């Protein structure tokens, strides 16, 4: 027999709610109080950077409302409440959080549920409810490194979850959903503190990326103070939180043209109309400064989205098919009407 | 083999209504309605290419060809049935 390999530390504890997290069943009109020991475990594990999720029986809205009423909602970063197999729900949680099933633990007072999950997902570690208070003492719930960003990670997951929920709930009209987000985009010159993130974006953004040029922090620092260049950053916020810096533009200024050397937008916010908004601003700004809005474009396997976005923003090709080394050049004709930013987002522009 | 314009428009409005999760009429300009983002724009272009077996070139990516279902119909028929120059409608320009 070989020594069993040590399983990886648990990254997410998935809770059954009724008779596990709280003392009773919420479906029956009860308002069961949470077990004090379960609450302690929630907080202890959270401080170690371990996430919590809920997979339980009953009505989704009622269960999550009760979680909130108990003041426990904020500890959870995902929930699936319903009547299907719990193993399926646990699998979905792992997908949502983008973590492996072998880093998931499941706690439930019902042995049949534990057996179902264990049979379908043998890599998920299952625990009976009475162990809830002892979980923090176990080796698998003691991660080797507890990073300072542990709490931040929970907030990040939770914010994403709430956004997704809002989107699902909005169901119907897309414009209403966008309007309900209260989006605010801020466009401003790059400052010293932003350069690292800006440089990282040039490496990591591929789809909404016009030329794929990679700029180091050093280059961006130089360009942001060069008189013939403009470096602009876009930040996005909504009522759920701050997305941080999501977009970057590097523009070269000549006496007659404002040449977009690189424009990119994080794919996380592509569905918020962020790319269109920033482009429209750049076109407007170029014109206001008396320059023709020009952009370069270098096609890749994944950036056709950017080309469509540029074309729909009014950029028209002025060169024939690009050579191997030269980028395609596009320009917004002088008579192209400028689209006003959509009413779903507020635009704040800061200039140097 | 080629489709009737009315049929094409109907097919396109069905796609648009499903994708934008609201009823979209043949002449609704969903761009000015603020319903379009980069992801949807690419989805729309890809849909047109796949459904009507054509390639949308850089030059074809004119917003005016894509802003309503009827405009897309005209574009599709221009690309595929170049021999049918009959305007599909009048006066909605």
From TrEMBL, chain A:
Record-linked InterPro entries: Acyl_CoA_acyltransferase, FkbH_domain, HAD-like_sf, HAD_sf, HAD_SF_ppase_IIIC
SUPFAM superfamilies: Acyl-CoA N-acyltransferases (Nat), HAD-like
NCBIfam families recorded: FkbH, HAD-SF-IIIC
Protein name per Swiss-Prot or TrEMBL: HAD-IIIC family phosphatase
Annotated organism of origin: Streptomyces fragilis
UniProtKB/TrEMBL annotation, chain B:
Domain Carrier positions: 2-80
InterPro entries assigned to the protein according to its UniProt record, in alphabetical order: ACP-like_sf (IPR036736), PP-bd_ACP (IPR009081)
UniProt-recorded name of the protein: Phosphopantetheine-binding protein
Organism of provenance: Streptomyces fragilis
Taxon lineage: Bacteria, Bacillati, Actinomycetota, Actinomycetes, Kitasatosporales
